[in-house]
RNA sequence: GGCCGGGUGGCCGAGUGGCUUAGGCAAGGGCCUGCAAAGCCCUGUACGCGGGUUCGAUUCCCGCCCCGGCCUCCA
């Protein structure tokens, strides 16, 4: 079984075709580092992280490129507003994004190229496009001639003749559809030398240049948000095609996060939930679950209810893993079925919802084995569940080891144990009033007790 | 105006021309428990509306309504 993915260009799910067997080149459009990341940005990161991890889990070597757009109109504008150099704002926000990715344990990319570090590659690509007649210089700007690219529209399925011509009529363009590869410098703005005079790159050209730099002229997967399909990816594809590059074989786009009410979350709409805000109330693994449990192409509506649902589901899994781990130390596991179903679900266009259904079914089986003290089978189920969770980065032990009681200091642990022992003595003499009073006090303090055949287990709520 | 996605049981969320109509949460019943907690079992008979195709449609086709995305920066 091999991975099948939905390709935006063909609008079909098909087997992933690789340039080099066993090796996958992935380019993901990363953020424009203009403002602090919101949960929509993290959804993007989590969606492609699952792709990344599944490719690794199925034995591929992955070159994973996620760029940072660190110079553009908005960054320049906002930085100017704060009387701050654009590169200072870009660096601050790049760091904020990195912290957000790290908080959810998103695997780092193989390389994280920045626009400002790739001006030579960008200039060379533009020169090539001018030389072959598909781009032209005009008043210090350089534009791609969209008419020179017959396949224009193949990614977004837009008919160029029917596009609204939104951008203000730019007399420097030969055709309203043409878009800038290079923008002539304006006073006070960052600028780099070029054959066409000082200026800076247009938005789309950076990705074409950097993808080719690290992945070659033809590579396997180009990913990004649904909102990038047009014009960004259409234009990227057009430039690269014009340059004679094969560029991406498969175009993968993930869905967006909306605010409550269904409207897309974005900075410009002012309805963003920042990652730092979310993490102040939501445990990181729960956030990861909330953003990763839906299919990557579906819309996620962000709400307290969505978070609560994710917390309940994750806690159910985490509780099982914790309980099963306690009982199976040193037990030789008997392998349990389920991995094939899980793998089949992920191979089918990263069907995480179905994969999670397999996980939950395994958890239910494991809970039965746990109740029956069928320990070798339980150990096998635990191993299976943790293996599956590992792919999704949701294993409470190896991915999120700090959650649970282990983070408590030994002092607190000892105090709780003392109370638990006192209660146990009360229970032995059947002093239920005393025993329940102690349990109630602990519950009030945020500690839940569970009486099991093996003794008392406690955890934080 | 053009292109696209979606409307599934109380909520979230998969999926499918009939077959066993995922999974989670919530609800009701049962089991376990001194009582709880955790857990297990059972129950609910859903697919926006109107047509059509079909032996049979939630699933295919047509029309309509509603929600959302893109067409301008955006993950």
Task: Summarize the topology.
Blueprint: E1 4-7, E2 12-15, E3 23-28, H1 39-57, E4 61-66, H2 73-81, H3 86-103, H4 119-131, E5 135-138, E6 141-144, E7 179-184, E8 199-201, H5 205-215, E9 218-225, H6 229-242, E10 247-254, E11 257-258, H7 275-281, H8 284-292, E12 300-301, H9 304-327, H10 339-347, H11 352-371, H12 375-392, H13 410-428, H14 432-444, E13 447-452, E14 455-460
Parallel strand pairs: 3-4, 3-9, 9-10, 11-12
Antiparallel strand pairs: 1-2, 5-6, 6-7, 7-8, 13-14
Helix pairs in contact: 2-3, 4-5, 5-6, 8-9, 9-11, 9-12, 10-11, 11-12, 13-14
This protein binds one RNA strand of 75 nucleotides through helix 1, helix 6, strand 11, helix 9 and helix 11.
Give an overview of the whole structure:
With 461 residues, the protein is an alpha/beta fold. It is built from 14 helices and 14 strands. It has helices spanning 39-57, 73-81, 86-103, 119-131, 205-215, 229-242, 275-281, 284-292, 304-327, 339-347, 352-371, 375-392, 410-428, 432-444, and strands spanning 4-7, 12-15, 23-28, 61-66, 135-138, 141-144, 179-184, 199-201, 218-225, 247-254, 257-258, 300-301, 447-452, 455-460. A 4-stranded parallel beta sheet has the order 4-3-9-10, sandwiched between helices. A 4-stranded antiparallel beta sheet has the order 5-6-7-8, covered by helices on one side. A two-stranded antiparallel ribbon has the order 1-2. Helix 9 runs antiparallel to helix 12 (375-392). The chain is elongated, with a radius of gyration of 27 Å. The two termini are 41 Å apart. The mean pLDDT is 92. The protein binds one RNA strand of 75 nucleotides through helix 1, helix 6, strand 11, helix 9 and helix 11.
